[in-house]
Amino acid sequence: xxxxxxxxxxxxxxxxxxxxxxxxxxxxxxxxxxxxxxxxxxxxxxxxxxxxxxxxxxxxxxxxxxxxxxxxxxxxxxxxxxxxxxxxxxxxxxxxxxxxxxxxxxxxxxxxxxxxxxxxxxxxxxxxxxxxxxxxxxxxxxxxxxxxxxxxxxxxxxxxxxxxxxxxxxxxxxxxxxxxxxxxxxxxxxxxxxxxxxxxxxxxxxxxxxxxxxxxxxxxxxxxxxxxxxxxxxxxxxxxxxxxxxxxxxxxxxxxxxxxxxxxxxxxxxxxxxxxxxxxxxxxx
Length: 285
Prior knowledge:
This protein is mainly alpha-helical. The chain has one domain. Helix content is 58%, strand content 6%. A hairpin with a 5-residue loop joins strand 3 and strand 4 (184-185). Helix 3 runs antiparallel to helix 4 and helix 4 packs parallel to helix 5. It is extended and about 90 Å long.
């Protein structure tokens, strides 16, 4: 293995058995530029998250400019607030799960040695309720990562979800690309450069040849839209049309550049709807 790989061994506590499985993890640092916010559905399990979003949205009303410019700036402001809240307030589900399982294991051991007391019983009950909530958040998180639309909340089929996450990750991963000279490149910088250059060639001018070909293609396409249809499509949007378009999208598909998914815009439409409509109108004009 290369020097960039890291290995970590840890014992997994189990409260219902005296056998402790060991997990060995190998990891490699992500290339530069691969980080960023990923809006997670499990955040909605926090009862104060929506009210926090509304407060942060009001706080972000400090920018001046076109509706599109202000909206982009406000979403970046929201992104930083969400990242800080997730780090400081919304606890890490893996660490919380380990903490609760270790506490339950300790109660189990104390019960064997000294017997169950009323305080221990109440403590165990509270921990099990916490564990149920953490497991539900973990399930929502894994389902979100897998992008499987048919999985419903409560299925808890982690083996299938983990397989879907791995398949999605492998499908979206580009490990090696071939340069025009026939050589293969696997470094992040080389892949980035080759991809950019490739699209420059595909979409570039090439001494006007592509522009001429595009014009010739447009000339042979028959006009199927009447003047009346064209006038209808160019009319101003209504706020209800914009709202319907937002709510017709899948909640967890195609996040915006800041990492915010449609689910956020749908749940926050009550206080963000006016600004979203202004952005659409600004784009149309």
